[in-house]
Every structure is written in C-alpha cells, then in structure tokens.
Protein 1
Amino acid sequence: MTATPVCVLGLGLIGGSLLRAAAAAGRPVFGYNRSIDGVQAATADGFDASADIDATLTRAAETGALIVIAVPVPALPTMLAHIAERAPDNPLTDVISVKAAVLDAVADAGLLARYVGGHPMAGTAYSGWAAGDGRLFVGAPWVVSVDDHVDPHAWAQVMQLALDCGSFVVPARSDEHDAAAAAISHLPHLTAEAMAITASDVPLAFALAAGSFRDGTRVAATAPDLVRAMCETNSAELLPLLDRAIELLTAARHSLADRGSVGELVEHGHAARTRYDSFTRPDVVGIAIGEENWRDELAAAGRAGWVIRSALPGPDSR
Amino acid sequence: MTATPVCVLGLGLIGGSLLRAAAAAGRPVFGYNRSIDGVQAATADGFDASADIDATLTRAAETGALIVIAVPVPALPTMLAHIAERAPDNPLTDVISVKAAVLDAVADAGLLARYVGGHPMAGTAYSGWAAGDGRLFVGAPWVVSVDDHVDPHAWAQVMQLALDCGSFVVPARSDEHDAAAAAISHLPHLTAEAMAITASDVPLAFALAAGSFRDGTRVAATAPDLVRAMCETNSAELLPLLDRAIELLTAARHSLADRGSVGELVEHGHAARTRYDSFTRPDVVGIAIGEENWRDELAAAGRAGWVIRSALPGPDSR
C-alpha cells in the first residue's frame, strides 16, 4: 500500500496529537483549524495547517486523503456539509467520543458510503494545539467501527492510521462502543464531578485531599463543554448506567444505615476491579477485511477483548 | 530534644512504612507484628521486630517510647488492653484512618491522657510488610489531632514523628478529620466500587477501558476488609455525604432525561475541582504548642488550610 495522505479537521488536543503522530509515522498529513491561533501554532511547530476549510477539502479531494474529523460535536453538522460539497468521495473517519450520534449525522449528510467511525481512547484534562502530544495514542485502544455499512477499503485505511499512531485497534459496533464508553468514561466523569462538589462543601476536605481524591476527581478538571458534549450526545446509553450506579450507591447507603455494612458493594466492586486487572487482550487472527461476515466476526472478536496490533490482511493487501 | 524511641505496633503497609521511615530519619525504632511472617520479613530487612506483644510493650515502657498503633480497627480493643496493662504512661498515637472511633476506644481503655490521634494521608492499594516504603509519607498530609484533651508534650512528639517521616502536619479535631476523610477517601472508595461493578456488566467496557476508568476505579483494588473498616467505623460522617452524592447524581439523571443536560453538575464539579487545584497550604506561624488556646488555634489554622512543615516551638523546646 502507498501511504494515503491524512487530512485532519480540527487541531485541538486530539486532532493536533493525531497530526503530529501521523507525521512522525511518515504519513503525508495536513490540517485545518477554525481559529487562526491554532493554525499559527501548528505552522510554527513545522506542520502543514490552514484556516481555509474549502481549500483544505479541495486538496483532500485531489489527493484522495483520508479525512479525519476532530472537531467538537456542535461543529459537526457544518463540517459535514463542507465535506459533502468538496470531498464527498474521500474515505472519512472521526475521533469523536460518541459514535451513534456521529453515524446518524454522517448519514444525514449523505456521507455514509466511505465513513468508518473511530475513537482513540486517549486524552488528558487539557485542550488545544499546545496540549497535543504525538505519543498520546501509543498503547491506547482505538475503536474502529464495524457497523453494517462499512466499506472494507475505508476500514483498512482507518485501521492503518490507528496502528501508525501506535494504538491497537478494537473493532466494535457503534452502539456497543457507546454503551461501553458510557460505562468507562461518561459515568466516571459524572461521579468525579459529584465527588468534587461533595468535598468542596466540607471544611478541611481539600486540606487533607491526597491520592485517592486527586485520582478520583482528575477528570472533573476536563473542560465542562467537552464533558457535556460527550454525556449529552450519549444519553440513551448513559441513563441506564447512571441509574445502575445510583441504585448501587443507594443500596449501600441503606445497608450502612440499617446494618452498619457496605460489604456487598465493596466485595462486588473489588471482584469487578480484579477482573479488569486480569483482563488480557489477545491478537485478532484469522480474519481478513472484506471476507464474508468480516464485520460480524470483528465485532464478536472486539466484544471478547481481542485487538488488532498489526494490520489484518484486506482488500488492498498484496 | 533527644530522639524518643518509636514503637510501632503492626507492620503492615502503613506500620511497616513508618518503621522504615523513622529508622531512615535516625530514630531508634522497634516493632511488633502479630504474624510471625511479617516479623521475619522485617527482621530479614534489618529491622528490630518481634511477635511478642508483652515484651515489646515492656520495652516501650522502659525506654519511654512513643507508641504507634498501626493495627486494623478490629484488633484495636485487644491492643489497647495490652497497652493499658504494660505501658499505660507512654505517649500514644495511631495511624488509623478514622479518628473519633479510635478516640472513643482509647478513652474506654483509660489511655486518653497521653493519646494524640494521627492519620498519615498516604497509602496504596497493596498491604503487608513487603508493600511498605520508607518514602510513602513524603510530601503527604499527616493529621495530628487537637482534641480538647491532648497533652502538649505528647502532641509535640507526634508532630515530630510526622515531620521525621517527611510529611507535613495538618492539625485537626477528630470529628472534623472524619468528615473530611469521608469526603475525600471513604466516599470516593464507594463510588469507585460502584463504577467497577457498573462497567463489569457492559460487554466491551473492559476492552476499551483507559485512563479515566483506571484512575477512577484504582481504589476499588484495595482489600475489601480495609475499605469496609474505614467506611463502617465512620458511618456517621459518611452517610450524609453519600446522600449528597446520590442527590447530585439523581438530579443530573433527571436533568439529562428531561432536558438533555448535565450542565449544572458538570459546571459545579469543574468549579470545585478548579478550587482544589488552586488550594495552597501556607505554613502555620505564631502558634506555640501548649500556650493558651493552642488547640483551638491549631484547629482553626488546619481548617483554613495551614500546615506545619517544621517543628513548632513547644513545651520541650530549648
């Protein structure tokens, strides 16, 4: 395979890190950012960036670039309209932390044919070009969606980009991704917010706060708009898990008040965390991209914890 | 001041780390552990340890050692009975993570006169002698209680031990400590357990879990008996905070379901975490241990975030 150019739309923490990582992997890469400040910062660091969306997308269309949408959710519809106008046939992915809502917006824009959803499970509490890091994705899971519509050529390109950035690929359906993301990211964000608020009302609490509080509330330092965007666009999956967490805490509350025990919650929580610590990620083997039932087979493999660490054979393999 | 010997009762994670830290600071130090395995491990590492509680306490009485109780809560009454029999006049402290319950037990044992509660705010998810680390307390807050009864001589000795171990001292009343510990440690432990359980029921969740989940559930790896002991012995302070957290999450749940917004929780949580990040700890100045109202003044200073980084003048200062 020749190295397909990469066109990154949005040069914040994730997009900016991706631009750096793809360049470091030797990929031709160029980017767009709405604010001129981000463009200037990226350019000053030696990268190829522009604040002209139409020129950027025209260039993507001419070079057959893989387009990566890395803008916040509220900016997505406008961005998709631009892409539909200037580069409707390019392979297209995104790095947004919810997948079903993006899939719907892409379908509404008529861009489903070459779209493969993506989500690198990496981040920090910071944002903007300056916070980016070309090694942000190293060793992190990167979800690549295997919904029914996905095209094998586009899928292979998104897989390769994730591998080039140092991630391993977890194949998953968009709805299953969103339920998992609600459990491991969106719900923990909300509980961290609640912990921070609860402690802030107690005299002496911040004076004594150490490791468990700092770690447990770290994600509450994330910009509120980002937390809201991911929770609010994933409410269908988040609500039942939020209910479950409230139910567990309420049961523990009654058990503590009535019988002086939090044993049930603590024993089950410890057992769950122990299962997580012993969770292994074997390599996906024996599946070729584009063969019969490849999407279902990859979804099943991802669900079972299998990951892709080196490129699977596919439609463009020699 | 001459260096008072230190007698550590219980050589698990905290007691074992304390034995190492005090020895590294040049203090004469000896320890007791119930299990012979812990004694052998400590002895093999070059420390002075015994499984004979009566001999250890007799030695403490003869040398005027500062006795540090580092056993789990369930073992406390038996340990206090031994101390009352063999070393009732020694200065006495503890490193247990709740303070009011220990204070009551110490009073019941008739040992209040020389007792000053302590709590180093440091730990890991591991336990036992082998998990100990002489640098565990470096840079961590160490609460030293300033309840109405405390004796200035004993207080100065406990302060010095905390400083010798590399901690800074936060003076606090036992009840205020317990409310703060519920907010920053006990409640975060319970929410971490709930997060781990919730995620464990969602296919794909562990496969995608990354930084925010790992950090947010780290404390769920703590041994269940330790989590239960600290939560269950502090239920009076923990219950209202657990109620508050449930209330915050329930309000967010309804706001998300009814209006598609988690804005209120997220904005307040971010603001609280930002206040925590900007929290500073100025040095206590101008208070001498034992002067009029010294306990109230230290409690007020601790509540305001002030800490002790070098020994305050006191009754034994030259």
Protein 2
Amino acid sequence: MSHTVEILSVGTELLLGNIANTDAQMLSQGLSALGLNVYWHTVVGDNPQRAKEAVELARKRADIIITTGGLGPTCDDLTKNVLAEAFGKKLVYDEESLERIKAYGKATGRPLTENNFQQALVPEGCTVLTNNWGSAPGCAFEADGVHVIMLPGPPSECTPMFRYRVVPYLHALSEGVIASHTLKLFGIGESAMEAQLRDQMNAMANPTLAPYAKEGECELRVTAKAPTMEEAQALLLPKVEELKQHFGALVYGVDVPSLEFVVENLLREKGLTIGTAESCTGGLMAKRLTDVSGASQVFKGGIVSYTNEVKHNVLGVPQELLDQYGAVSAPVAQAMAEGARRALGCDIALSSTGVAGPDKDDWDNEVGTMFVAIATPEGTHVRALHLGNRPVRARLRTQTAHHAFDLARRYLSGLSLED
Amino acid sequence: MSHTVEILSVGTELLLGNIANTDAQMLSQGLSALGLNVYWHTVVGDNPQRAKEAVELARKRADIIITTGGLGPTCDDLTKNVLAEAFGKKLVYDEESLERIKAYGKATGRPLTENNFQQALVPEGCTVLTNNWGSAPGCAFEADGVHVIMLPGPPSECTPMFRYRVVPYLHALSEGVIASHTLKLFGIGESAMEAQLRDQMNAMANPTLAPYAKEGECELRVTAKAPTMEEAQALLLPKVEELKQHFGALVYGVDVPSLEFVVENLLREKGLTIGTAESCTGGLMAKRLTDVSGASQVFKGGIVSYTNEVKHNVLGVPQELLDQYGAVSAPVAQAMAEGARRALGCDIALSSTGVAGPDKDDWDNEVGTMFVAIATPEGTHVRALHLGNRPVRARLRTQTAHHAFDLARRYLSGLSLED
C-alpha cells in the first residue's frame, strides 16, 4: 500500500498546551513502522466549524484520515458528528456498544446520562472498533476513496486501540504484509551510524533501513514488505543479522524497549540480583529499573548518597578516599559500587558520581564529568565519562544512567566492559 | 490584543513520531497565558511543497504565524526560504548573526561549512531574534497584516527563545499588558474544583479564571489585562488572595513549578535537611527531589528498599513488623521513615510502601494500596492511600510521591497533616 495519512487531533486542551500531542507521536511511529507516509498533523479545538474545515482539507490531501479525541460526552461527540456529516453518513445506534457502555457504567459506578448513550451512535455501515479501555468506541469507514478512522483521545485508550484495532484494520487494507525489526544501539552517535550506512540505505528498496536518535541512544529500523509474513521475515532476518555483525557489541538488543529492560532480563535468566548507589543520578537509575514491572524479582534496592556523609555512613566509602580524590572520582565510584553490593546484598551493583550542574563542583570538576562503576563477584570496573558541558541537567543524568546500564549488560553478556 | 495564532511545526522527525511536538505545547501554554487564541497546530515534514501549502493556509486563517524547526543546515533552512518567498521578502546577511555563528563554531570546536553561514541569512527588514542557546537565529516580521515569527526546533533553544525573545515582541504588539498568576493545588480533583468555581468563572471577564488538571495535581490560572503592569496586578492580587482563602491548605503555592520545589524551598528557609526511604516509588521521590538544581543543599540521600531484606538490614525495619503486618502496611511505612532519618542523618524523612501493580502483593493487598509517612523530630505521621486499581503503574507511583511531598510541605508550613 502506498497511502498518505493525515492525523487530525481534536481537543482544546492541546491548543491550550495542557497536554502534548503524544497520540500523534504514537500513531506516527506505528504508521511509519507499517510503511505508511504520514504527511500532516493537524490540531483543532472543540470547535465544529474549524473541525469541519480541517476535515475538508484532509480529505483532499490524504487518503487515510485518523482522528483522535472529540468522541466523549463533554465535547458532544464533535468529531463523529463532523465526520459523519462531511461524508454523508447517518448515525445509528450500535447495540453492542450500548451494552458495553451500560456495563462500563456499572463497573465504574458512574451514573450514565443521555450523553453517554450517544457514544453508541456510529456512522451507518462502519466498522466499530471496540474500546476495551474506556467507554467511547472508535470506528472506521471508507467513503469517496478515503479511509476514516476515529479514535478516542486519552493516550491510555488511544494506544491500545491503535495496536489492537487499527493495525489489523490497516493490514486488511494492504495487499501484502509489512514487518519490521528495530535494533537498539548504545555507544555510537546517530551521525556516525548514519555515515556508515548511508550508501546501503540509499541503495536499499525492500527491506528499507531507517536510523533514529533517542535520548543518547540510537535505533535502526529494518522494514520489509512481502505477500506473506514468512516472506517478509525472510527478507528481514539476514539484514538484521548483518547489522548485528557490523555493529557488534554496540547493539544491545532487537525489538526491546530499553537498556534497563535488557539488563533485567539478563539478570532473570542468570538468577542474579542488582542494586544501585547513586550520587549525580539521584535515584534515576533505581527509578528506571523499577519502571519495569516485575523488577522486584531482580532489583534489591538502591542508595542515593547525595552527601559525603551518606557515602561514608551508609555505603562505607572510606573517608580518606573522599578527602584525597573528592566525591567525583574513579576511586569513589568504585567504593560506592562495592559498598552498595555489600549493604544491599546483591550480586552486582552499579554506581554513579559526577557533576550534573548547573555549576562546577568544589573540586573544580567541569559539568559533565561523570564516573560510573559496576561491582561484581569478579571485581569492579569504572568508566569515566566526559559528557560535555552544555548545562542540561536532565540529559546528563539520563546519559550517565545509560552508561551504567551499559556496563551491566556488557558484564552480563560476557562482553568487554570497555566501550 | 485579540489575535489568532497558528503554530506551524516543520520537521520530518515529528511525522515519523521520533519526538512529540512539545514545542507546540510549550508555545500554546505561553500564548494562552498571554491571552492569545491558538486555533491551529500544523505539522509538515521537511518538504518545501507541503510547507508552502501550510503557509498559504495559515496566512488566511491566522494573523500570527509562529513556526518551529526547519532553520538548520540539515534541512537547507527550509522554513526561512518558504516564508520569505511566501511574503515576498529578500534574504540578506545579518552581520551580528554571522559573528555569532563564527564564535559558536569556535566555542564548540565544530568545523563550519557554507551551510552554517546561510543561517545568518534573514528576511530583509525583519527583527532578528538572537539565539543565545544554539546557532540558528530566529526572526520576526510583519507583512500583509500577518505577524510571522520563526523559531528553532530543538526544545532547549525554542523554550528560551520564546520566553526571552517572543514574549517581549508580542508585548510590544499589544496595547496593554497581560499578566497572570497560577495557584497550584494538591488534594482536590479538577471536577470538584471546577464545580466550586463554575458560577464565578462564567461571570468573570477581567481577570479570567482557568482550571487545569496535571498528573494528579490541579492548577488555577488567573489572567488580567490592563494598560499597565501595576493595574493588571491590582486586578489579579485580590482574586489570588480570595482563592487562597477559599481553598486554604489545598493551595501549595503560587507561580511555583512543583510540590518538590516548594518542599526544598521551605527546607532551605528553615535550614533543615530531608531524606527518603522508598519501596513502591522505587527511587522516583529521590529522582524528583534531585531534578531541582541546588538540591544538594537540603537533600541528603535516599534508600530504595525493594526487598524486605533491605528494609530490615539498611533501614532497620524490625523483622517482627514485616512478618506481622507485611511490607505494605502503616507500621512498616512508619519504621521505614524513621529508619531513613536515622541512617541518613536528616531532619525529616519521607517513606513510601505500596502495591504499584500490575498484580496484588503476597498479602492480597489490592493494586493502589499505598502508605506514605513522614518522620520528624516531633514524631511520625502515616497517610494511607487507596488510589484505585486501574493498573497504571506510572500514575500510581507519581501520585504516591505527590502525597509524600504533600506531607512534607504541610509539616514545614505548620499545617495539619491530615488531607
């Protein structure tokens, strides 16, 4: 399929800046992965006139229109009314949706009003996209050569609705299947990665190769189209293998969400536990490890030692090291990791210490000077980082945590700890 | 001023979903605070034809067009070329920008190419918006009754450019000044807040009142327009006082970024220190406290005790309590906070323990059952929470941390600890 997509988001809260348009981002990612071209995002408020203008524009320049928001009772089902009118569709009650709305009201204990039942009105002849994650159903229809797909706005509904309702619908439109794999890399910049691949990227047609940069990490997405899933995978897998060979230890996983997810999977496989000792990252490493559900199987705990006193008293970092080298130093990073391993009783421990800014520390270390360490039964390894002095505190902390997790996944995979 | 704004974002990375359009959110917030009506957001890729179409549309339906992105060398300064052509402006070199680009290249050690110097080309007769946060300058001009403002795309440049360059430019367009204050509330839902205010909100014209919900917190923004700043403040301040009286202890601050920021300011004022003991929040409380720069003056450290072993060994929670009540219990929350106070040597300590999901714990506690505690020199107080069982791990963790910080700000402000 070679379709052109416009994402039309309806919601005054977007125009007031109360929320970012993360629905459009999620949909764009998913549609790009399917090989569809998203050419326009448009946002309008809960205003029938401007919504109508936006629909009239979109139908001229796109052949798939995906709307988000404007389906609930507070906006009088604005999106549905405007789209139905624009494409000359009558609204009719969908019995299953009516039942579902009644059941939802009962389950949440909320009294239902006439407005709620109007949510069960859908354009005649459409495909109803059942909403198991909220009350308003989505729907899809084709008219005048344009596919219209309407989704609820809350990301907790829009995301699963896209994945479980829209992706199968779009696959059914296609003559073949589109499949992709994503390699995740750490330790190489996007421009360096792109430079190595540019020639083959330009030469490739099926599969295609697309690089992305993401908060200090890189992704390489390989996408293929074929009549069947087997054929698509047959096109993809040799290319994925080739790229894994080419980038070697820089690839930390394929189709995985994050470094910490990979680390926790490796720990689970090996029956090992982890703990953290954090200074500059201030709890971010522990927070990221516990973002993953099921973390309690492998994560024992962490110590955030923001003062020398806590480094000494809780982690047992010798006072001499703190006095001689300062808190931001390789010996202190090492002693922190070893102290965490002891105090928390974990198999491996990660530590961080550094200057996240905005100012230099008392020892005149520049902002961006960081040390991360891993303590293991076989010994401790320290990595020194110079992350540049642009004073972006959040970015420096994120990068530092990435590096600590990279040490863990290299250790657990039997790779060299040098990057 | 009663202007209509369109935000036009240029960038293929937005259409691929690599990033969310946070620039549009930030601009929308700032423009709404100025009393300007944002009616459209549009996103196009790095494609001259579609960018041109978007500009032709925008100039018909808005009288202020703010663009983000498409200014750098990698996209051939697409936005600037398209806008200059659309409004019939020649591009000329801006001497100061040329010097600045040379200096920037020198400071960052990057070699400069012809492309870099093209960034110093600006539409003839425009106001150059100096970029102190990156290399590409912004610019603003007025033509055919439309104000065009171009900003760089990276949020680390776009945000300060808006605040320090665009806001003053827009103020100069206005005949009066617009000023606003934002009350931050915790412990009340948006709908309950709105219900109490609906009648006066509808009756108010100047100042106006707008409620917002934000991740379990609420905001009330009061905005006034007047010929001078003094007159605007004279309209605002009595209303702000009245709302503070009305909502009492639920208001945690005016014009402040977050609960943790307020807590750290109160600690600094009183010369006290804080520490954390976290189970279900897994480091989030420490991470949020250390997101604020200058945290090291008041934050000593934290212990993430994800296992009973760490609760007992590091925090000194008595084994009998863990055996008798389970880890998710008021007595354990209390012992964790008191243990953190002891171990970290801080004046006050916050703790959290609960079930963040996705599943019930071994003691059959429902997801969303949480306890937070504060240990102080005068004793310890525990707050039990039942945050509902919709399995949204991140939301439950955020809310739990809010409640712990709320205990701290109430204690430090001499308010009742009951919510």
